[in-house]
Amino acid sequence: MVIALNENTDLAMNVKNLNLWYGKNQALFDVSMPIWRNKITALIGPSGCGKSTLIRAFNRMNDLVDGCRVEGLVEYNGQNIYGPEADVLEVRTQIGMIFQSPNPFPMTIRDNITYGPKIHGIKDQRKLDKIVEESLRKAALWDEVKDRLNTYAMKLSGGQQQRLCIARALSINPDVLLMDEPTSALDPLATKKIEELAVQLAKEYTVVIVTHNMQQAQRIADYTAFMYLGELAEFGETKQIFNDPKNELTKNYVHGVFS
Amino acid sequence: MASSDMAFGFEEVGKTGAGLETPDVKGRSINSRRFNPDTIPKLVLTVTALSAVIVVFFIIVYITSLSLPAFKEIGVWEFITGDRWQPGHGYYGALPLITGTVLVTAGSIMFAVPLGVGAAIYLSEIASERVRNILKPVCEVFAGIPSVVYGFFGMIVLCPFLLDLFPDQLKYSTSWLAGSILLGIMALPTVISVSEDAIRAVPVSYRRASLAMGATGWETTTKVILPAASSGVIAAVILGIGRAMGETMAVIMVSGNSPIIPEPLFNIFSNIRTLTATVALEMPEVVYNGIHYSSLFAVALLLLVSVILVNLTANAIGRRTRRKLGIIKAPKHSLDLKGRILDRIDDETLRAIHRAKPVIRTMLSAAVLFALASMMLSLFMSSNMALLSAGAITAGFVLLSRAMRYVSSTDKQTAAHTSLKLLMVFVLILLAVIIGDILVKGLPAISTDFIFGMPSNSGREGGIWPAITGTLELISFTAVIALPLGIGAGIYLSQYARENKFTRTVRNAVDALNGTPSIVFGLFGMSALVMALGWGYSVIAGSVTLAFMILPVIIKTTEEAVSAVPKSLIEASMAMGSSKWQAIYKVVLPAALGGVITGIILSLGRAAGETAPIMFTAAVAFKSQVSFSLFEPIMALPYHLYFLASEVTGSTANQYGTAVVLLGIVLSMFLVASLVRHHYSKNAKW
What we know:
The complex is a heterodimer. By secondary structure, chain A is of the alpha/beta class. Chain A has one domain: Rossmann fold (3-Layer(aba) Sandwich). Chain A has 11 helices and 10 strands. In chain A, 54% of the residues are buried. By secondary structure, chain B is mainly alpha-helical. Chain B has 2 domains: 36-57 and 445-686, MetI-like (MetI-like fold), CATH 1.10.3720; 75-325, Orthogonal Bundle (MetI-like fold), CATH 1.10.3720. Helices cover 71% and strands 1% of the residues of chain B. Chain B contains 24 helices and 4 strands. Chain B is globular and about 80 Å long. Classes of the chains: A alpha/beta, B mainly alpha. Chains A and B meet through helix 3, helix 4, helix 5, helix 7 and helix 8 of A and helix 21 and helix 22 of B.
């Protein structure tokens, strides 16, 4: 499949020469890659390769880590999210995140969804009701929970909790969705649902997903980046990465020589 | 490529998210830098943490500087080793006081360790889940009883009982023995709960591994679980020691307070006086800024330093347990002297050591038993008879321990379980006797006239209304002062503090303040607030003193409750563009509310029952009317009880009535706290 892409309109984010340090340890080395709009980009690589660090650099979640320092550019719509003018709260509003294990707030299902809109100033109850329904529908959870919106989120199953977290992220209508190993804590059935959901969401959002599971990347990703020891070893269309890797390391990894 | 088949009920939605009612901000420029909404909350929280540190350092510096004149005039060495404490005659030798504190503490530990550790083993290893869930809160009631109520019980029940038991040995009804028994009971809750936590922290896999090799439950407990938990249990005992050392009211009321060194040193029937008692008894009599005044600060400093050292030791040992169990990491350059020495010894010697170990252990315990038994027995009989009987007892013990090897391991288990069960029953009986005596004799004294009436005839008649309102007034103002500071500092430590020097200083300061005996706060409050600032005996002076005392508890419980909320919730909130403070305020604090409220109620309950910090800052024996002014002295329940019990003969009925009301207020606060904890623990699962 060949996709013609226009750099100006189809580029959601662009990473240029990104270096990142935790204290004295450098975790990312000179990473450059595009994130194409309305596509799914997968980050793969062995444990400790920096893929989680990289995805957390995409919406400045690494700011929360003491002693974390960044050089280089991460552009969103052509604006550097690390620039002096950039507002980190606005960055995270546009670029949302789903985490490794489901982390619903200890509140009701409804309150989980209305949390974000309320933070951003929406008070009208009817609007909030509508957001709750839309977000849960988009996350394919509505039919399962519509009759118990006021029960505690902790009562849901793991897979449902993760879809609730996706709905929560969608509630503020972000542009890009970052998913950091969203299925690593789930069973195969729940994993399948999340994968199908990611594909569905890519129609409307730009999705970046970190995964440990190469089959998952092959099943859902349009583009795949292979990370190794903090460097971007190879980036390309998923088919090419898995069928015709240019880099020796990529070849060994996707063929299971090491993991 | 990616398929988009509608596998299950997806709603088809438009490309732009039409219908979603969020303001259309998608793709909005991110370059709209606003004022960082986190700045102000962070600043406020930092200031609260800073003021908590300032309070601690101010108290320590204040006490040290006021004790300097005494040290200069008397000399440090002379002060510590002088064996006469007679300020009226110019003798300031603190040795009798130090001896008194050491002896009464040592005695209390002989009492608290077997009972406390035994009860902890019973609760964690033998009791069923259901029994433990009932008994654990029951044991915590011990911690809720105010020290003045213990003292009252000691005066009115324990001392007469001991006098009946040892009529020939006791010269007075008060004694070191009575003080030790009472302090031992008071140290029980600390020893029980900290040891139980340590034992339960041992991974269940250890137990399974041992049982899977055919060991009995009891063998597993003694050979695997307890050795693994040993440093935690030792830490518990040391914390109990710290608690007993700093205790004031109970000791004053039962141990006689003569500043003498017992003759002979192990004469448990002698009167003694502790460091804490000295400060409490002499503070009202001293000349402001004189040498006697300064010497009391020197006594307080001595107390403060020893209690802090004791608590630091307990913390260090507690950390060792967690390292041993792999809960926290060992430092890189750990010494492991034992391992190094054992590595150098050749196998032959090692085998000899292993063979000798049980023999040496038996001989050591026999020697200790012999020494203790002969000392105690010599108080009852001639020294030759005492040595003989002690020898007989020791021989019996050695024979019994040798005979144990012929008992089957299941029989041993049965015997051990039965004795621990009996021990637990004894602890419960103790509690029932204390609470029961006060309820049975106190409830008949309760009437509307007693609750709402004014005291008359020096408190022998009439009611305690001004004392009730006074106590409520005191804890309300204490809450007003301590809560903002404590909660703010707790949140700061948990969420904003980086691991740097400032944070470590705050933590150490909080720990230091946490162990400080309440009488030291009383001394500080009297000198700094009542005298130097000129507030006089007043609600405000008492509340500030109490607030300083409970500040560390509030800081610690807030920090623990807030830290228990997973970091991932903050990340989830911030990933939606909330500020850190919004995440804390709207997600973390509601989730931590149960723990924070529990900590607040418990510490206010403690403040309500304290006597030492208010007896020189706020409380007076009588007030003719109820008034609400920050700058007037008040009556308070704990001080009223102390005053009636120690000064007003013939007021027994009203003493019991006051004790019941005080106990009722404090224990109902504890009950509310545990209900709150229970209520919140149902929803907080992660």
